[in-house]
Specification:
The structure holds 2 protein chains of 2 kinds.
Chain A lengths: L4 H8 L4 H9 L4 E3 L3 H5 L2 E3 L7 E8 L2 E8 L15 E3 L2 E8 L2 E8 L2 E9 L9 H9 L2 E4 L24
Antiparallel strand pairs in A: 1-9, 2-3, 3-4, 4-8, 5-6, 6-7, 7-8
Chain B lengths: L22 H6 L38 E2 L50 E4 L9 E3 L4 E6 L3 E5 L5 E5 L13 E2 L4 E4 L13 E9 L3 E5 L2 H12 L7 E7 L4 E6 L8 E7 L9 E7 L1 E2 L1 H7 L3 E6 L10 E8 L8 E2 L5 E4 L5 E2 L2 E4 L3 H6 L4 H4 E3 L2 H5 L12 E5 L6 E5 L2 E5 L2 H7 L7 E3 L1 H5 L12 E4 L5 E5 L46 E3 L33 E4 L2 E4 L4
Parallel strand pairs in B: 22-27, 23-26
Antiparallel strand pairs in B: 1-2, 2-9, 3-8, 4-5, 4-7, 5-6, 6-9, 9-10, 11-12, 12-16, 13-14, 13-17, 15-16, 17-18, 17-19, 20-29, 21-28, 23-24, 24-25, 27-28, 30-31
The chains are: A alpha+beta, B mainly beta.
């Protein structure tokens, strides 16, 4: 279930106009961090007409957040389905670390998302696994294909219900 | 896409090339990499993933050589055998996969469920901020972090380049980059945490049932490196220079075997794979002076004369493909397809002899595709018809003169003048039967076997051999098809019409006098056998052994395909 349209609109208002335009072109629901400090430095990329998703980049105080989404998967016969080891936004997912860059991946409403938190100080307190988890749980929908028709009132699922609160 | 030939890679090759490797020396020492999933012992459980997840990608370093291997378990690494990160062994072949190398974090595609996300890559030398990292594919820069650059392609695949020096970054967030465009230089940047001088390279993409995760980049790197360094299999190349009635001509070379001849497949009538296409294979091995300098090797030309059946005044497309010396895909030559449209040649003088069935055609090793002149029915009917061709050729030699070989043809003996003629007819001289001299001499001697077989075909199913009449010099009745001096079989060619015995023997490069133009066949000249004659082996294959024969027919040359 998607969040209420009014909730989405509230978050959208904080975004730069250029980013709102990019969000509207996204072929998948766009998740962004809800903290204004992150949103101030956020930008959306790779959302062309043929794009399978989007890529968000945001920076704040020596930390870099990257969110990537895709609606078109490659099927690998040798892989099949792999169940996630962690609960992320109410679904199974994976938490990892790539050369000090914290990573999370999950599939939400049929869209594959991943988020990465990279820091100048990879071992610092602001770059721990818990920081990434909190950021991912706090991601909010702001539009994109699949969200525009959301007029359903009430809390969402899979962490979506967290949107709307003051940062 | 899957790479091939990896099962032959052997562990412990001891390929220590050093850092001054040149492409040629790398080639000489292939393979340059160990199989995917073959991690350093006790460094984790690798994934033997053969999939090239990024086919056609560019190698992420501007220049080679390059040495993907572990930063943790090699010299100078925290779990290595000691030494220094710049030790020569780290900058030596063979490559070693370290995707899925032991780590404690989730990696859903790794056998252990945890592991290293990508591949560590060392540059040509252990120098900081010297070697350029370049984009492996065109896309948009979707992240520039403290020590990472992500480029996302239009298909959504993402390439990650880590540990480049921030002060060497030459792209910006949101910038569109082209393949091979410089991004940053190889360094040891990991924020405020030290690491070795290397590029950490990831491929991340949406995998069904798993999510947006890191896939093995190893085989993509292998294929890209082959391209960068000129390693591995390359497609053959060449040009279909000319498709004229005088000759089909071109050249082909396989860069992987630059000195060797290349087999070229010519398809008449349609492209390769089309059931209507008639394939003919020639060997590109003819010396051509003009190829020596550009190819570094001279013997790569091929030539083929137009099959007689296609000299029918109709257009026929011809496609040319060079075969790969290493079982790779054949490559269509430049300027292919081309087209031939050739007038029918004049029909040599003689009589026509019906080839009664497909079995006879096969027994005589005759090919309508190569040897049949298409003619109108009135032209054919104007040619006198004599004895049918026998079921199969019978060769004989006598014990008195074993060097002379004779064709036993409907009760006549006909001399096979030389080996070239035997080859042109596909005769196996060694299979000649040994007859008593008296028995052989008892047969009347007719005209020698012609230098080359020529067939005739009209609109109907019948195929005829154009031949000399079988004349008995001792016959009491005068045969109007036979010359008055029928006893002569010396090979003089004084008779100009009707085809007498003996006028065509000897020189394989001359033909009997001509009947004149054969006219046009309005059926399009399909090379397939007519009804009742079975299949022409489904191709234009020349069934004969021996050297190519040459038939000069006025200005029209027709040479059989080269073996």
């Amino acid at each position: 279930m998607w969040p209420a349209a009014s909730t989405i609109a509230a978050v959208r208002e904080r975004l730069p106009a250029s980013m709102r335009e990019a969000i509207d072109r996204s072929p998948v629901p766009v998740l962004v961090p809800r903290e204004p400090t992150w949103l101030a430095g956020a930008s959306l990329h790779a959302v062309g007409p043929q794009s399978p998703g989007y890529a968000l980049a945001a920076s704040q105080g020596g930390r870099h957040l990257s969110v990537q989404a895709s609606r078109i998967a490659t099927l690998l016969p040798q892989v099949g389905r792999v169940r996630g080891t962690r609960s992320i936004r109410g679904v199974d997912g994976f938490i990892g670390e790539n050369e000090g860059i914290r990573t999370a991946s999950w599939i939400e409403h049929g869209v594959a998302y991943s988020a990465e938190l990279e820091c100048e100080d990879p071992a610092g307190p602001d770059c721990r696994e818990g920081q990434l988890e909190a950021m991912v749980e706090g991601l909010v929908y702001v539009g994109g294909a699949g969200v525009g028709g959301a007029g359903v009132e009430g809390a969402g699922v899979g962490g979506v219900g967290a949107v709307g609160g003051a940062p | 896409m899957r790479a091939r030939g990896l099962t032959t890679v052997v562990l412990g090759l001891g390929l220590a090339f050093g850092t001054g490797l040149t492409p040629s020396s790398a080639r000489a020492q292939e393979p340059f990499y160990l199989p995917p999933g073959d991690l350093i012992p006790d460094s984790g459980q690798g994934l033997p993933e053969m999939t090239v997840f990024a086919p056609g990608m560019r190698y992420p370093l501007e220049q080679g050589p390059s040495y993907p291997n572990s930063q943790v378990y090699m010299n100078g690494g925290s779990k290595g055998p000691g030494g220094n990160q710049c030790d020569e062994v780290n900058y030596s072949y063979p490559w070693r996969d370290n995707y899925c190398e032991t780590r404690s974090w989730d990696m859903p595609l790794c056998p252990a469920g945890v592991g290293h996300q990508g591949q560590d890559i060392r540059a040509p030398t252990c120098e900081n901020k010297k070697h350029q990292v370049v984009a492996t594919a065109a896309g948009e820069v979707t992240n520039i972090g403290s020590y990472s650059i992500y480029v996302t392609t239009p298909s959504g695949q993402r390439f990650d380049y880590l540990h480049g020096a921030l002060d060497t970054i030459v792209v910006a967030l949101g910038q569109q980059v082209e393949v091979a465009q410089p991004l940053v230089k190889v360094s040891n940047n990991m924020g405020n945490t030290p690491t070795s001088i290397h590029l950490h390279f990831n491929i991340k993409q949406d995998v069904g049932g798993v999510g947006f995760v890191y896939v093995s980049p190893y085989m993509s790197l292998v294929e890209a490196y082959k391209e960068l360094m000129g390693l591995g299999n390359k497609p053959p190349k060449g040009v279909f220079d000319e498709a004229a009635c005088e000759q089909l001509r071109g050249w082909a070379q396989d860069p992987d075997s630059p000195e060797a001849p290349v087999a070229v497949d010519l398809y008449f009538g349609a492209a390769k794979g089309d059931p209507a296409a008639v394939p003919v294979q020639v060997s590109a091995e003819i010396y051509r002076e003009d190829l020596c300098q550009p190819l570094g090797s001279c013997e790569h030309g091929f030539e083929l004369d137009v099959p007689l059946s296609l000299r029918d005044g109709q257009p026929h497309p011809v496609f040319a493909y060079a075969n790969d010396s290493e079982d790779g895909e054949a490559a269509e030559l430049e300027l292919s397809p081309s087209q031939i449209e050739c007038e029918a040649p004049p029909i040599p003088d003689g009589v026509r002899r019906w080839i009664v069935d497909p079995e006879s055609l096969a027994a005589w090793k005759l090919s309508p595709f190569w040897q049949a002149i298409q003619a109108t029915d009135p032209v054919i009917e104007a040619i006198p018809q004599t004895q049918d061709l026998g079921a199969a050729p019978v060769l004989a030699r006598s014990d008195a003169d074993p060097a002379a070989v004779w064709l036993i043809d409907q009760g006549f003996r006909r001399q096979v003048a030389d080996e070239a003629i035997a080859a042109a007819w596909g005769f196996d001289l060694a299979a000649a039967e040994l007859w008593a001299a008296a028995e052989l001499q008892a047969l009347p001697e007719a005209a020698p076997v012609r230098p080359l077989p020529v067939l005739l075909k009209g609109t109907g199913p019948k195929i005829y051999l154009l031949d000399d009449p079988l004349c008995d010099p001792e016959a009491s009745e005068v045969d109007p098809l036979c010359p008055h001096s029928a006893a002569s079989t010396s090979g003089d060619a004084e008779t100009g019409h009707g085809g007498g015995g003996g006028e065509s023997g000897g020189d394989a490069t001359t033909l009997p006098p001509m009947h004149g133009s054969s006219g046009q066949h309005d059926s399009g000249g399909a090379p397939a056998l007519p009804d009742g004659y079975g299949q022409d082996a489904g191709c234009g294959c020349d069934q004969r052994g021996g050297p190519a024969a040459l038939w000069m027919l006025g200005v029209l040359g027709w040479r059989r395909r080269r073996r």
